[in-house]
Amino acid sequence: MRCWIKKLSSTLAFMAIVVGYVSGGSLSKAWRTLKVMEEKGIKPNEKFYAVFVNELCKKGRNYDIIKVLNEMKASKVVIADEMIKRVISHLEKKGEMEILKEVQQLQRARMLSFRNPVEPHTLREEETITEVNFTQPGLTSPGSDPEKSPSMGFDEDVKEVSKILSSSFHWSMIQEALVKLSIKFTPEFVLAILHNCKIHGQTALNFFNWVSKQQDYNHTTETYNMAIKIAGCGESFKHMKSLFCEMK
């Protein structure tokens, strides 16, 4: 197991690592990653397992799917009705009748708990980012931060930059608008921007890269952590690794 993976401290980050291994066909490494999580006291949540199972279905790793379901049952993690339907549909299409029977037996025996199918537990974008236990010392909400830019209050600046980042799909246009701003970028300010614009994944990461090249600016552990989370949300395994290594 690579040492940089052992230093991760986030369910979301580990989820992206596991997805990367599964998609690359390295199932043994994916399972070892779960072992590392266990050793660090990080428990995979429902969303984590849902993504894991979805990737296993894509790769046709049917015995590993059963292994995950049993792992969830043993860990008392609720399996959503949506997930079990996905598994059954996949196994039926693949003609894996023996494995399908195992899933159906578990279902009939009521050994698994299912959510209401109308309200499956799918994390919202905000939950996906904020449920991860990354510390951000010294950061208050934008509206209460005492630091002010020369032109306007901290919160107004955050809103202005956030609006620019969400205004276009073309990074060149966004960059032109950013250059015209008379705002002094600080790590606290950048962290607030990244949190505000996390749903704009790639654009937020482009901003992270752009601001790192500005005069007298240096990223902190907290801004790197947020960028890693954003990359993890997009399941960008290589980008996560690159950011983590860059942070070191």
TrEMBL record:
PPR repeats: 10-44
Gene3D superfamilies xrefs: Tetratricopeptide repeat domain (1.25.40.10)
Record's compositionally biased regions (Polar residues): 134-143
Source taxon at top rank: Eukaryota
Keywords: Repeat
Region listing for Disordered, in residue ranges: 134-153
Protein name: Pentatricopeptide repeat-containing protein
Source species: Trapa natans (Water chestnut)
